[in-house]
Amino acid sequence: MNDPSDTGDALARATDLLRGHTDTGWTRLQPGLLERARGAFRTSEPVRGRHAHGDYFVRTDVLTDQIRRAVDAIPGAAAASITCTTGDRDELTGVTMQISAGYGRQLSTLAAQAHAAAHATIVELLGDLAPGVDAVRTHVHIDDVVDER
Amino acid sequence: MPPTTEAADGHPPDPVLVRRARLGDKQAFAAIVTRHGAALYRYASRVLDDRSATEDVLQDAFLDAWRGLPSFRGDSSLRTWLFTLVRHRVSRQLGRRSAVPQTGFDDAAADIADPAPDPAQLSLGRDLREALDSALRLLPDRQRSAWLLREVEQLSYAEVGLVLGVSPTVVRGLLERARVTLATTLKEWR
């Protein structure tokens, strides 16, 4: 940091002022950037779902986000990674999850809860084309799970 | 410095936002934009000295961040990684310019207002900050970048080196030269 005796009080004061300053340009730009952030997308695969009126598609990033929310809702659990795989007709063939578990949690219980939550989400999103519960693979490792709730 | 707890700005700490955004949570990404955007803008705008180019850089860098988050391993802090993305975009902008506009000492000195004899405190602060902005224009790009990242954004020497792609020793040299120029230019404000 600036030492006033070395670089002058004015530079130290000016540096403090600049550090606490928010440019009006940023204030103007921020709303548009946030709008773009909400509309941003990543390249992701389509996943086929089916309901009474026919087939439809859900992107894997949407599926991943929804599974993450379901797993994070379990106390002491946090999804660290979620990978979806699809088959030739874009049907979901598998989901592999890594779950972080808070220290002291019963891992087998947590894994079962995460597994069930993920599968329920998949059924909700893909309807009749949701794969069986065995298609979901869950790996649990102990980690610091920040209490976000 | 960025908030590290939920209480600081109402959002979870960076590692949690990163994890969520990596898994597709756009609200978490929006929180990252809100938390770090002002500092990134402050840096880019003072290196580029061009509002339109700064806006392009911020938009592109945040798009890079959204797309790059799934592969972000957390070897550096989120903040340092974001500055690295912005720096990359800033360098591309500078590279497009046939010649980076250089402000001569006389021009910059003219921009540095003399301290008024009886100004309001608020105006004094603004004048002093604007004088610093003018003095910064005297610095070559790398000195300016190093100084901003270290002194204003408070990155460590190693982090500044990471952002600029140079060693901490080089960072130290850049900072020493930048400090001398800035202190000399602002000496009227003592």
Automatic annotation (TrEMBL), chain A:
Source domain of life: Bacteria
Stated name of the protein: Asp23/Gls24 family envelope stress response protein
Organism annotation: Cryptosporangium japonicum
Automatic annotation (TrEMBL), chain B:
Amino-acid biosynthesis is among the record's keywords: no
Claim: DNA-binding is one of the keywords in the record: yes
Alphabetical list of CDD domains matching this protein: Sigma70_r4 (cd06171)
Residue ranges of every copy of the RNA polymerase sigma-70 region domain listed in the record: 33-98
Keywords of the record: DNA-binding, Sigma factor, Transcription, Transcription regulation
Alphabetical list of InterPro entries matching this protein: RNA_pol_sigma-70-like, RNA_pol_sigma-70_dom, RNA_pol_sigma70_r2, RNA_pol_sigma70_r4_t2, RNA_pol_sigma_r2, RNA_pol_sigma_r3/r4-like, WH-like_DNA-bd_sf
All residue ranges annotated as the RNA polymerase sigma factor 70 region 4 type domain in the record: 129-182
The protein, known as: Sigma-70 family RNA polymerase sigma factor
Species this protein is from: Cryptosporangium japonicum
